Structure formats: structure tokens, C-alpha cells
TrEMBL record:
SUPFAM superfamilies: Clavaminate synthase-like
Keywords: Dioxygenase, Iron, Metal-binding, Oxidoreductase
PANTHER family reported in the protein's UniProt record: MINA53 MYC INDUCED NUCLEAR ANTIGEN (PTHR13096), RIBOSOMAL OXYGENASE 1 (PTHR13096:SF8)
Protein's name in the database: JmjC domain-containing protein
Cofactor(s) recorded in Swiss-Prot or TrEMBL: Fe(2+)
Domain JmjC as annotated: residue spans: 93-222
Listed PROSITE patterns: JMJC
Native source organism of the sequence: Vibrio fortis
Isomerase keyword on record: no
């Protein structure tokens, strides 16, 4: 298990969305959760999102995985980096590292990206719209971070795939060693260069943009066949200016627009569904054959654990603990099963040392049969 060696609450108060910083020894005696060879193995898998970035002779190139064995048989000594997105979805140790950041909510968490960098490897100077904690594993990298982007940086696209900027003056310039953590809020330019072959782990957080909320809400309204009404105004009067939109008509139409957003249940369901959808592929496999409730009950009675698919988002609203949003789906339970539902959302394992009502077993069976939780046989 990984444990942060600093107070996340104090860190958040001082730095979150404010300033980049380095937390020296953020993990004590850090041990890499994965080897470079295992990482290469992941990048050969069809369902895993990976990239290979090379910067030999200052010429940038970026290639998407999956990669073949051959790729790793003939690698140059230096100037390249292998990147695997959402490694926490596919690797248990990576998932455990991500778990140590659980004081930050699941709805904000995006993924754990892992980079193996050969000497001088990196992705060049760039700006992300993510909050990221970059945990240094084995090796050493030098990190530079510049002042927040206020439109002063010039974009330069490399190899038609890499979004870089032309350069920046560093406000941070430091070498990270195993266990050190660099935090970068959105909008601060940064660049890592590799001094010694390195593994680094980027724990990324992404909040939705206003335009995403609006466009996804419009899709939600259409999908649920809501708001299928025209403006109704029996008090309507004639007007002398044919081309004019009266202030009163603008007000009625604006009210219509607002009214959709003033349905608290609609908005909370919409947010739950949107925020519980992962942006990266998940290892969801429905069991075959399906489990029967009795078998699930027997498994728990025999002290067997049941695991949540790594990276699956299961969320609930603070004031509504009998509804969960799991991978974009709404799951409602009776009040009596609220405690189970919230622990399903908060924990990654269903621990067997509790009593389960028949309705609780039915819920767990349904989730296992959807492939959202699984039983190791
Ligand atoms: C890197 O490790 O070079 C890429 C990580 C990042 O800049 O976000
Ligand atoms: Co970055």
C-alpha cells in the first residue's frame, strides 16, 4: 500500500489550482509498482492507450500503440519515452498507487499515466488543462515549470501530433528523485528531461468545461425526451415594430431556457451520469455464465471478496444516498441498502464480514453480472 508523506488537506489549501510546487519525499522509500518491461507489455495490448515519443536530433515523432515485440527489440539508447494512459485500469500495482490520492474525489480523477523515459527522453515543453501530480519512480528527471499561461506562449505542433510551446522561463527548475512529487495546476507550462532512465507516474485530474456541461446537458434533455414544448403565451399582444424582439418575449424565452436547469432532480441525475463516465477504456467483462444470487451469497458467506473494476466510477450525491451513478448508469436502491451503496462507491472491495440482506445480494449480483464488480475464481 502507498501512503502520502504529507498532509493533502494542507497541500490543497496552499497549492490546488494556485501554484505548482515540488513535494520532496512525497512518498517515503518509494517502490515502483510496475517494471519497465511490464509497462512495455501493457503497451502491446490492443485495449491499452499508449504512445511512443522520440526526440532524436531534436526531431520529434509520436506513434500510437499497440506496439509489437520488435519495437522493443531495437530501441535506441536515448531520446525516447513510452507513455501508457490509464495504467490503473489494467495494472493492480498502478491502481494501488492511484488509491493513495483518494482524498481527492473520484469524479475529478482522470487517470494514472505512466512514462518510461530513456536518457534525454520527454515530450517537450507544453501546457495541459489538467491538474497533475507527477510522482518520480526510479531514475532522475529535471523538471522546469513556467508562469501560468496568460496568452504569452506560442504554440508549436511537432510531428502533427505533439502540442508543444516554443519555450518558457522557469519559475521551478529542479531534479526529481524517487518519491518526489511535482504538482502542476492547469495552464502552467512544463517540461521534463531525463537525466537517468526513469519511471514517472502522472496522477491526473480533469474538471469538465462549461461548454461540455452545456452540450452534454442538451444531449441528456434529448435522450430523456424532456422539454418537448413550445412557448405558450395566451397574453400575447401585437407590436408596431415588425423586426423587434420585445424585452418581455426575450424574458419568456430565457425563462424557458432556465426552467430546464431549475429541475434539481434532472440536474443531479445528469451530473451523476456525466461524471461517472470514464474517459478511458475499462476492463469490463460480463461473466459467463452469469452469477446467480445464491452463488454470490455463498461466495460472501465463505469470506470471499468481490472487487470493483479498477478505474470504474461509482458516485453518489451527498444528500441522496439511495441513488448511485455507475459508469453513466443510474442505480436506485431501497433506503435500507443505502449504506451498502455508498460503500460500493467509496471502496474498491466488497468485504464479506457484514450481513447482506436479500436485496443487497440482488444488487451485488446485478453489478457482478454487468461486469462492474468481479469475483476472482
Ligand atoms: C512527461 O512525463 O514527460 C509527460 C508528463 C506531463 O508532462 O504531463
Ligand atoms: Co504535461
Amino acid at each position: 500500500m502507498y501512503q502520502l508523506n504529507f498532509s493533502m488537506a494542507e497541500f490543497v489549501e496552499q497549492y490546488w489550482h494556485k501554484q505548482p510546487t515540488i513535494i520532496k519525499g512525497g512518498f517515503k522509500d518509494f517502490v515502483d509498482p510496475i517494471s519497465p518491461e511490464e509497462l512495455a507489455g501493457l503497451s502491446m495490448e490492443e485495449e491499452v492507450d499508449s504512445r511512443f515519443v522520440s526526440n532524436h536530433d531534436n526531431k520529434w515523432s509520436a506513434e500510437h500503440g499497440p506496439f509489437s515485440e520488435d519495437k522493443f527489440g531495437q530501441l535506441p539508447q536515448s531520446h525516447w519515452q513510452l507513455i501508457v494512459q490509464a495504467a490503473n485500469h489494467w495494472h493492480q500495482g498502478a491502481a494501488q498507487l492511484a488509491e493513495s490520492f483518494k482524498q481527492l474525489p473520484n469524479w475529478l480523477f482522470d487517470d494514472l499515466m505512466i512514462c518510461y523515459s530513456a536518457e534525454h527522453g520527454g515530450v517537450g515543453p507544453h501546457i495541459d488543462q489538467y491538474d497533475v501530480f507527477i510522482v518520480q519512480g526510479h531514475g532522475k528527471r529535471q523538471w522546469k515549470v513556467g508562469a501560468k499561461d496568460e496568452g504569452q506562449y506560442k504554440e508549436s505542433i511537432q510531428a502533427s501530433a505533439l502540442r508543444q510551446i516554443e519555450g518558457f522561463d522557469p519559475i521551478i527548475d529542479q531534479v526529481l528523485e524517487p518519491g518526489d512529487i511535482l504538482y502542476i495546476p492547469p495552464g502552467f507550462p512544463h517540461e521534463g528531461t531525463t537525466l537517468e532512465p526513469s519511471m514517472s507516474y502522472s496522477i491526473g485530474y480533469r474538471s469538465p468545461k462549461e461548454q461540455e456541461l452545456i452540450s452534454n446537458f442538451a444531449d441528456f434533455v434529448l435522450a430523456h425526451d424532456m422539454g418537448d414544448t413550445h412557448l405558450h403565451d395566451p397574453e400575447f399582444k401585437t407590436q408596431s415594430n415588425f423586426g423587434q424582439i420585445r424585452q418581455s418575449d426575450l424574458a419568456s424565452l430565457t425563462k424557458m431556457l432556465h426552467s430546464a436547469l431549475e429541475q434539481p432532480n434532472t440536474v443531479s441525475d445528469f451530473m451523476g451520469c456525466l461524471l461517472s463516465q470514464s474517459r478511458h477504456q475499462l476492463d469490463i467483462v460480463a461473466p459467463e455464465p452469469l452469477w446467480k444470487a445464491e452463488e454470490v451469497s455463498n461466495h460472501l458467506a465463505a469470506q470471499g471478496e468481490i472487487y470493483k473494476v479498477s478505474g470504474l466510477k461509482a458516485l453518489y450525491h451527498e444528500t441522496e444516498t439511495n441513488v448511485a451513478y455507475i459508469n453513466g448508469e443510474v442505480i436506485k436502491v431501497e433506503e435500507g441498502d443505502s449504506a451498502l451503496l455508498t460503500s460500493l462507491c467509496n471502496e474498491s472491495i466488497i468485504a464479506p464480514e457484514q450481513t447482506f440482506s436479500p436485496s443487497a445480494i440482488a444488487l451485488i449480483t446485478d453489478l457482478v453480472n454487468k461486469g462492474y464488480w468481479f469475483i476472482e475464481e
